[in-house]
Amino acid sequence: MAPPETPQPTTLRHAFGNVLSVFVLLLIGVFAFSIRLFSVIKYESVIHEFDPYFNYRVTQYLTKSGVYDFWNWFDDRTWYPLGRVIGGTVYPGLTLTAGTLWRILNSLNIPLSVETVCVFTAPIFSAFASWATYLLTKEVKGAGAGLTAAALLAMVPSYISRSVAGSYDNEAVAIFALILTFYLYIKTLNTGSLFYATLNAMAYFYMVCSWGGYTFIINLIPMHVLLCIVTGRYSPRLYIAYAPLVVLGTLLAALVPVVGFNAVMTSEHFASFLVFIIIHVVALVYYIKGILTPQMFKVAVTLVVSVGLIVCGAVLAVLIALVASSPTKGWSGRSLSLLDPTYASKYIPIIASVSEHQPPTWPSYFMDINVLAFLVPAGIIACFLPLSDASSFAVLYIVTSVYFSGVMVRLMLVLAPAACIMSGIALSEAFDVFTRSIKFQLLGSTENLQVNNAGESTNVAQNDVVKTEKNEDSQKERSSRKSKKKEKESTERVPLVSRIEQKLLVLPLETSLIAVFLLVLLGAFYVVHCVWAAAEAYSAPSIVLTSRSHDGLHVFDDFREAYSWLSHNTEVDDKVASWWDYGYQTTAMANRTVIVDNNTWNNTHIATVGTAMSSPEKAAWDIFNSLDVKYVLVVFGGLVGYPSDDINKFLWMVRIGGGVFPHIKEPDYLRDGQYRIDSQATPTMLNCLMYKLSYYRFVETDGKGFDRVRHTEIGKKYFKLTHFEEVFTTHHWMVRIYKLKSPRNRIRGKTKKSKSKASSTTSSKRSGTRKKNPWH
Amino acid sequence: MAISSTPTAAALLLISILFLLTTQGTPLSSDTIVSELSSLRSQSSTGVVHLTDSLLRRILSLPTPRPFHSLIFFDAHQLHSKPELSLPTLKSEFSLVSSSFQSNNPNENPQLFFFDIEFQESQASFALFGVNSLPHIRLIPPTASDLKLDSIQMDASDLSRMAESMAEFIESRTKLSVGPINRPPIISKKQIMFIVAVVLIWTPFFVKKLISGNTIFNDKNIWMAGAIFVYFFSVSGAMFNIIRKMPMFMADRQDPSKLVFFYQGSGMQLGAEGFSIGFLYTIVGLLLAFVTHVLVRVKNRTAQRLVMIFVLFVSFWAVKKVVFLDNWKTGYGIHGYWPSSWQ
């Protein structure tokens, strides 16, 4: 009776579990997507901040001109008159992904705009990322842990902060690529299949295309391989997982223009090559050990070890020579500051000054991974019991990423998936123990009554528990199931024995109930926190601003107002000067040429603009005119109290300008070391272009000229502009656009002098234009 | 040098000699002063001359332009214990500049002397320069006659990057080249040789042991403890404390007798604060792991029950405490979004 019956419920249960898993995963994907839509609901479908605007513009170009033109794109709309080679200086992964998505949708006759595709790329990829997390965690600790980890990742605030709808930046796709690469590595390690090894190299290629953070992968995987070798866990599977990745991965990485030969020339990649050599030596040793007798092997060992040492020594010498020849020892400043956390604060003030490169304090962890911070240690311990290749990789991942996040708050993003995996494992193990305790003790009485078919009744009960708790079978149960299949004759006995064994490993009923309740409470708190973080903290697009006051909600849409004014009222080839923060937005939204933008590759150029902003009108006009600038754009928050305006950034303009042009001196703008714009301000400050353009006619608004950001009345209220004229000021005065007056206005009675100075051709040209526009 | 041809200078000299004779009783000559300073300098291991009131007076009594610049480090032993001033570090950096200058410019007639002056014994000199806050480093150019006005104070920004920025300051103000700073290596060459030799000898034995599998590296409990420790270290924000050199606790501004362990405001944390929260973060996970992996194997029901109650209580308290402290520190009001019909 029993043997034909027992396989049926197990396969049925298995199938049911699979269907349930797929359904849960689908829900997780939907959830990951929808929690990131707060920014669209609260604001609108708009691209956020600064860098995403550049990516958006590149994507537009890609969809319009095709891949080859994109690859060779020289952009003349920025860094005028230098221009910028876009194709060779960007990570193309994100752009190509969104471009492909758009193309597919269009070929399916779904006519979405490029902007819509860009806005929703990040939420789509966070759904993918949570599925990849499921796969990775499943390889490490089984499906139950995988589902929990995927659910946690779908809403982890740290990841939400970089992937809300509209946040169209590299990290949006890179985190998915990172997790996928790790999954495929573990999958190869568990199966030893070359197919997965090749896929792994492809995933690594996608990661290299997407984000500079790929160096984390190419250092973490070699570290794990080395760890496996050192702890005596070498296997052919390890070789298959690692060697193809290094060979194929490096070749593919070198194809990305922005990486190129860096893939073999910089120290960030050397660890992988060193481990590549070591794994070959070890593989050779194992091979020889396999074909030789133990006596012969001892002789061979000395030979191989000596030869291997010589080879290693030679390679090491070459590497050291290469490394020593570069001043920073081949490491970039950011990598160095990870190894030696005090490095950046000592030697690279630019890196140390950026806010996302600061070390985090403990509230940052609570904000970004919330209650996962409590669960991770339990996950780490669970990974050690028992330790497998996969779980040791998970431990290595969490340890390195948590250390790096401690150095730079930005790398919290890399920590988040690891924390989710660990917490998923911890939660799943804890639920496993507690629900088991509850189940066996509640069923204890019924089991006594039905001694004869105890196996069946508990099977059914188990099904119920799976249904209600969403908790997949643990590895122990799985192994018992495997043994069931093997020994078909004793199918009745084995589950009984294992069940009795498990029955001993239970906790008291009532405390288990409380524990489950508290864990659910913890999870609920996590959900509340994540939803709050997604809705309140991370959804502001910073291009549209809102503020709540007693008389309701105010929307400040001045930036887009100004950019569309530019695009409608100026010539296509006009040049617009502004501080570099607004460069990407101006090129993307107004389609006008800018002098500097957020890709701060040329310090001199930025310093030139900074100098112009810090100079008096006449000198500034000369600088701008020499750069063919027609319009100057300043951002001013004094009327509405928008604190990150140009006046607050002005000291940086002075500093950067003074760094290249020494006649700009910071103390000239400070009164007794204090930065002020009231009547105590220095004359240099009150006469510089930035002050004048920001506060021109400001006194007309309230009669006093009270600045709501600096909380003072301004120092100089009534003045006229001589070389610039106001052409547009937005509704809340947040963006003000000025036009450079044409030279004739400036001369006024000195015409003779300037005529004699100017060359004949220009003067004739000028007189020609004057005839055309006598009133201008 | 001392004998001057012009009558006015001679008269000046005479007056100053008379002045000096009445006060010090030593004959005035820049040569003698320079040679005295040189000998004092050679006595000091770092080349920093200890300045006293009388020595300063004699230097200043030299006719301007004096043949050398003086760079004076104002020191106060009683303030060495105050960490925020970091006087000992600055002093060692100062002597580093001095020794580097000396070794890079092995000149018989030095153009620049490094001095340090102690507050307790030379309060008059401090008053003379009008120094009332430390750290303070001042350069006296050869032409300076009025100490307060003509001498140049080193900016805080020049102090910040240690010896290198001090050298830049000297180079920009005196046109003298300090040259590269010769920092003494942390461990001497002999020690490095010794360590390398030990490591080389030890490596083969270690590798052999490693292969046979009985070192501490093959014990997974060590790895586990290490991983947990790294986690604790990072989430407690210890890296922030190291980089920013935060103290463990600080005195209350309003009431200096009270100690502040928790700082309100999310941009900063104190050392003890970070470690205690890191401990709370870690303890919950450790207890959970203990329950799921160790406690289930315990046979005694009562023991299980008691430990479980303890664990649940501690975990609940820890989570509650962290949530409370986080809300207090950051000022965020985290709230759920319930259906409006529920309210």
UniProtKB/TrEMBL annotation, chain A:
Catalysis: reaction(s): a di-trans,poly-cis-dolichyl diphosphooligosaccharide + L-asparaginyl-[protein] = N(4)-(oligosaccharide-(1->4)-N-acetyl-beta-D-glucosaminyl-(1->4)-N-acetyl-beta-D-glucosaminyl)-L-asparaginyl-[protein] + a di-trans,poly-cis-dolichyl diphosphate + H(+)
Pfam families: STT3, STT3-PglB_core
Known pathway: Protein modification; protein glycosylation
Keywords: Glycosyltransferase, Magnesium, Manganese, Membrane, Metal-binding, Transferase, Transmembrane, Transmembrane helix
Basic and acidic residues bias: start-end ranges: 466-490
Location of region: Disordered: 461-490, 745-776
Cell compartments where the protein resides: Endomembrane system
Subcellular location, principal: membrane
EC number: 2.4.99.18
Membrane topology term: Multi-pass membrane protein
Sequence ranges of Basic residues compositional bias: 745-756, 767-776
Cofactor needs: Mn(2+); Mg(2+)
InterPro entries: Oligo_trans_STT3, STT3-PglB_core, STT3_N
Transmembrane stretches, start-end: 15-38, 112-136, 142-160, 172-197, 203-227, 239-264, 270-288, 300-324, 369-387, 394-427, 513-535
The keyword Lyase is annotated on this UniProt entry: no
Biased composition range(s): Low complexity: 757-766
Broad class of enzyme this protein falls into: transferase
Domain STT3/PglB/AglB core intervals: 573-632
Key word Manganese present: yes
Domain Oligosaccharyl transferase STT3 N-terminal: 19-422
Origin superkingdom: Eukaryota
Similarity field: Belongs to the STT3 family.
Protein name (Swiss-Prot/TrEMBL): dolichyl-diphosphooligosaccharide--protein glycotransferase
Automatic annotation (TrEMBL), chain B:
Keyword Signal: yes
PANTHER family with a match to the protein in the record: DOLICHYL-DIPHOSPHOOLIGOSACCHARIDE--PROTEIN GLYCOSYLTRANSFERASE-RELATED, GH11935P
Region forming the signal peptide: 1-25
Protein name (Swiss-Prot/TrEMBL): Dolichyl-diphosphooligosaccharide--protein glycosyltransferase subunit 3B
Protein role: Subunit of the oligosaccharyl transferase (OST) complex that catalyzes the initial transfer of a defined glycan (Glc(3)Man(9)GlcNAc(2) in eukaryotes) from the lipid carrier dolichol-pyrophosphate to an asparagine residue within an Asn-X-Ser/Thr consensus motif in nascent polypeptide chains, the first step in protein N-glycosylation. N-glycosylation occurs cotranslationally and the complex associates with the Sec61 complex at the channel-forming translocon complex that mediates protein translocation across the endoplasmic reticulum (ER). All subunits are required for a maximal enzyme activity.
UniProt topology in membrane: Multi-pass membrane protein
Major localization listed first in the record, in broad terms: endoplasmic reticulum
Family: Belongs to the OST3/OST6 family.
Source superkingdom: Eukaryota
Localization in the cell: Endoplasmic reticulum membrane
Keywords for the protein's UniProt record, in alphabetical order: Endoplasmic reticulum, Membrane, Signal, Transmembrane, Transmembrane helix
One Pfam family it belongs to: OST3_OST6
Membrane among keywords: yes
InterPro entries xrefs: OligosaccharylTrfase_OST3/OST6
Segments crossing the lipid bilayer: 192-211, 223-243, 275-296, 303-319
